[in-house]
């Protein structure tokens, strides 16, 4: 079952999302506020994806994203933003969202983005355990999908794990944003390359002693990023 939690206070938009996602085979559960969403999540947490509007009465989408992410690193989270400021998108992604869609959006765009995230979430849950990869002080546990630094566990989202897996397979190699985007988000991805930078920034905060001058997730100027151990 492909199950989505839809959080949107505007009834017309919520219905638009529900109709289109139901038609595409998703089971939807609706919440009109962040508080209601958390209440639902308390009693049923088997969602694959949460689609969160940012502007909500009470708890806003950012806060909700942060809370849901702390409850589940594996949940796919997409933010809906009506605002065009880049910072808003970046803020949401820093709090743990996997992707964002800017309003207004077409049914086909909504479905493309949700399908793409669902495939990633689903692929991860089905992957066979294959052991560990160790590079320097870092160990990537492919079965438990965790990263450890000097034996200390670091929590990663699905997307962060996939990026790290790609870096581990290519130590010392400059990987372009396009490489990372097509590997992790898929060739069909319609979003912006900026999402790669946001995820790398988030990973640096988790991994680096000094995220401001990274020693491991190094910027390859004009190209992308390099994993140095
Ligand atoms: Ca709203």
In short:
Helix content is 43%, strand content 23%.
What secondary-structure arrangement, pairings included, does this model have?
Blueprint: E1 2-7, H1 11-23, E2 26-31, H2 34-43, E3 49-53, H3 61-71, E4 76-81, H4 86-94, E5 99-102, H5 107-126, E6 132-135, E7 138-141, E8 146-149, E9 152-154, H6 158-169, E10 174-176, H7 177-185, H8 194-207, E11 217-220, E12 224-227
Parallel strand pairs: 1-2, 1-3, 3-4, 4-5
Antiparallel strand pairs: 6-7, 7-8, 8-9, 10-12, 11-12
Helix pairs in contact: 2-3, 6-7
The structure holds calcium ion.
Calcium ion binds at residues 9-10, 53, 55-56.
Low-pLDDT parts are: none
CATH architecture annotation of the largest domain: 3-Layer(aba) Sandwich
Structural class: alpha/beta
- Count of helical stretches: 8
Q: How are the strands ordered across the major sheet?
A: 2-1-3-4-5
Q: Which hetero ligands occur in this complex?
A: calcium ion
Percent helix range: 40-55%
And the CATH topology of the largest domain? Rossmann fold
Q: Which H/E pattern describes the elements?
A: EHEHEHEHEHEEEEHEHHEE
As for the number of domains, it is 2
The radius of gyration over CA amounts to 18 Å
CATH structural class of the largest domain: Alpha Beta
Query: Mind summarizing the main beta sheet?
Result: 5 strands, parallel
Cα shape: globular
Mean pLDDT: 89
CATH superfamily of the largest domain: Response regulator
Strand content: 15-25%
**Number of E-type strands:** 12
